[in-house]
Specification:
Elements (H helix, E strand, L loop, with lengths): L1 E5 L3 H12 L3 E6 L2 H5 L8 E4 L5 H7 L6 E4 L4 H14 L4 E6 L2 H9 L3 E4 H14 L7 E3 L4 E7 L18 E8 L2 E3 L12 E7 L3 H8 L6
Parallel strand pairs: 1-2, 1-4, 2-3, 4-5, 5-6
Antiparallel strand pairs: 7-8, 8-11, 9-10, 9-11
């Protein structure tokens, strides 16, 4: 997959190395040659020095063949402009912009641009770790609005059904691991002792989840 990453700060560097290690064709754009040098000699992608929303720079990076584009520079304005050019001018099918300002991230998300607010995600993750230590999420989606949990079935749920732990639009059991095997649950499936329940839950449903699991409000 041809991927272009605009911005080679800490996040851009890590994304670039990760994508390259996974075998993708990666091009990294940054105005600072020193930032590109931090990728190290083991990086086999393309390094392009220049402004990430300049047409000629984007063409040099291979924007016309790109299947994915992400803007993760330190400037929200630059990230928005670059992402919109990639999506609207060059029709890159997958475009993601990292924004520090959560309000702007939400505004552009409503306009159809995929955005990630590291500020919002970080705040939600810290809150989760501080207040939901009995069931810290194994993965979060979007800016933390939806999380995936892996929880051993408590004794009071053994013999109860998946339907008893389902709240449409808020909470659902997406898988059950039983004796080393992953199962796709039906609403009528009963929980057994030793089951690991894999639950998807909205951040607004944490109180409901804790109540169904029998956890105290201060847990």
């Amino acid at each position: 997959m041809k991927i272009i990453i605009m911005g080679c700060g800490r996040v851009g560097e890590q994304v670039s190395l990760l994508m390259a290690d996974e075998g993708h064709d990666v091009a990294v754009i940054d105005q600072d040659a020193a930032a590109l040098d931090r990728l190290g000699p083991g990086f086999h992608g393309q390094k392009v020095k220049g402004v990430g929303f300049d047409r000629n720079v984007l063409l040099q990076a291979g924007i016309e063949e790109a299947e994915g584009f992400t803007s993760v520079s330190s400037s929200d304005n630059a990230n928005i402009v670059a992402a919109r050019i990639a999506r609207n001018v060059f029709r890159v099918p997958r475009v993601v912009a990292r924004l520090h300002n959560p309000r702007r991230a939400e505004i552009y998300r409503r306009l159809g641009l995929v955005t990630i607010s590291s500020t919002t995600w970080g705040a939600r993750r810290i809150s989760e770790l501080l207040t939901h230590t009995d069931f810290a999420p194994v993965m979060s989606f979007g800016s933390g609005e939806l999380s995936l949990f892996a929880i051993e079935a408590p004794s009071h749920l053994v013999g109860r059904t998946v339907k008893d732990l389902t709240v449409p639009g808020e909470l659902s059991v997406v898988a059950i691991t039983r004796e080393g095997r992953a199962l796709m649950p039906t609403l009528g499936m009963e929980f057994a002792s030793g089951d690991t329940m894999h639950l998807a839950a909205l951040s607004t449903a944490m109180g409901t989840l804790k109540a169904l699991l029998g956890l105290s409000g201060g847990a």
